[in-house]
């Protein structure tokens, strides 16, 4: 039976799915990590669910869940898959395919491993998110950290404010302007402009491997994910609300 589909959003893939299913009974959910969320074009809630019990409550009346969160949001995805399985709610996770490792990359299992591998004096562009900044501090590094919202100054850190995607040309200009020597990024897949820019400039590239996928069905195919939503969501015209 069709009903409302909950889309756990926060990625470019989620935005594309939302754009494709406007007019259906969907509710997007954003974690609230930015003060300036992008308009998804569908009804959207912002903020956490209040733990597992809160998420269970949120699934009342939900026909299906599309999990299009960041591939490194393993705890969130694991909870969503587990609760949907318990309640018998259809669940599908949509992620970008991970990048294939390339010669010259240094791969790491964790952010901490990546931080420990950087030499003193390195000029580092971090695209791992401000929440992973701490392991890199106090190591004699000069850090440029990408984030979406402005933040107060922090010693030894320059904030790079912007919303992806970024062109390869813009990434090359950024890296040259700040004389970056090392790029540290997570293997989130999708747009690879920063990787191509770093390779073109001969920079050291450190990539943090994606965590093991939590239980639950996963796809990298946005058309399949869109079809999943359409199969479970009713037309808004059929819904009295």
From TrEMBL:
The keyword Cell membrane does not apply. Residues 1-19 form the signal peptide. InterPro entries: Precorrin-6x_reduct. One of its GO terms (molecular function) is precorrin-6A reductase activity. It comes from the Bacteria. It holds the Pfam family CbiJ. GO terms for biological process: cobalamin biosynthetic process. Pathway: Cofactor biosynthesis; adenosylcobalamin biosynthesis. The keyword Oxidoreductase applies. Keywords: Cobalamin biosynthesis, Oxidoreductase, Signal. This is Precorrin-6A/cobalt-precorrin-6A reductase. It comes from Jannaschia pohangensis.
């Amino acid at each position: 039976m069709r009903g409302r589909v909950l889309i756990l959003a926060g990625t470019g893939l989620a935005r594309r799915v939302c754009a494709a299913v406007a007019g259906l009974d969907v509710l997007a959910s954003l974690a609230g990590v930015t003060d300036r969320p992008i308009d998804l074009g569908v009804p959207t809630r912002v903020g956490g669910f209040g733990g597992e019990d809160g998420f269970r409550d949120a699934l009342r009346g939900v026909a299906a869940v599309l999990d299009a969160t960041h591939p490194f949001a393993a705890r969130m995805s694991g909870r969503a898959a587990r609760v949907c399985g318990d309640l018998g709610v259809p669940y599908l996770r949509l992620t970008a395919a991970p990048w294939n490792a390339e010669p010259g990359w240094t791969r790491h299992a964790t952010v901490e491993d990546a931080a420990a591998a950087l030499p003193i004096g390195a000029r580092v562009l971090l695209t791992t998110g401000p929440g992973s900044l701490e392991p890199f501090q106090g190591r004699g590094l000069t850090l440029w950290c990408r984030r979406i919202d402005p933040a107060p100054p922090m010693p030894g850190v320059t904030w790079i404010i912007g919303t992806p995607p970024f062109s390869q040309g813009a990434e090359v200009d950024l890296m040259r302007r700040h004389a970056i020597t090392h790029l540290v990024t997570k293997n989130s897949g999708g747009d690879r402009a920063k990787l191509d820019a770093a390779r073109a400039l001969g920079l050291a590239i450190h990539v943090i491997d994606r965590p093991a996928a939590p239980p639950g069905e996963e796809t990298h195919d946005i058309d399949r994910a869109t079809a999943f939503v359409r199969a479970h969501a009713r037309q808004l015209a059929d819904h009295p609300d």
